[in-house]
Amino acid sequence: MTSATFVPHDFDPPTSLVTDRFVLEPLGPQHNEADRAAWMSSVEHIRATPGYPDGKWPPADGMTLERNLADLERHADHFAARKGFTFTVLDPADGDVIGCVYLYPASTQEYDVSVQSWVRADHADLDEPLADALVEWISADWPWARPDRYGR
């Protein structure tokens, strides 16, 4: 892997993680309404989550469905181009969007990957289990050894 390559050329990125408490699948345009509703219902909770220290995301005044869709399309494009991997977090009981996971190149040489996640405020009890599951998943199924977990 070179510094310009986030994952090795021959690496096949996982497209799901299934647990009894949540399911991850690649975030895409099909999640637009549920994704927007999830984060808009939990702006303050997300801003208090490790990894979101600058207070810029999510936007306090929200965003239109069209702007959210553009954001989801950007994440899907990054996934396809292997520049970053964004997953929606779904409730296994009803398939509703309850959070999001972002795996992107780290901003410093100290780490291989930046690992950020959030869940809706009404699922706050999943914050730590999700973050811990991501560490295990990365260790088992991804090519990175040094994740930046933002203090988690």
TrEMBL record:
InterPro entries: Acyl_CoA_acyltransferase (IPR016181). Keywords: Transferase. It comes from the Bacteria. GO terms for molecular function: transferase activity. The keyword Transferase applies. This is N-acetyltransferase. It comes from Ornithinimicrobium ciconiae. The lineage of its organism: Bacteria, Bacillati, Actinomycetota, Actinomycetes, Micrococcales.
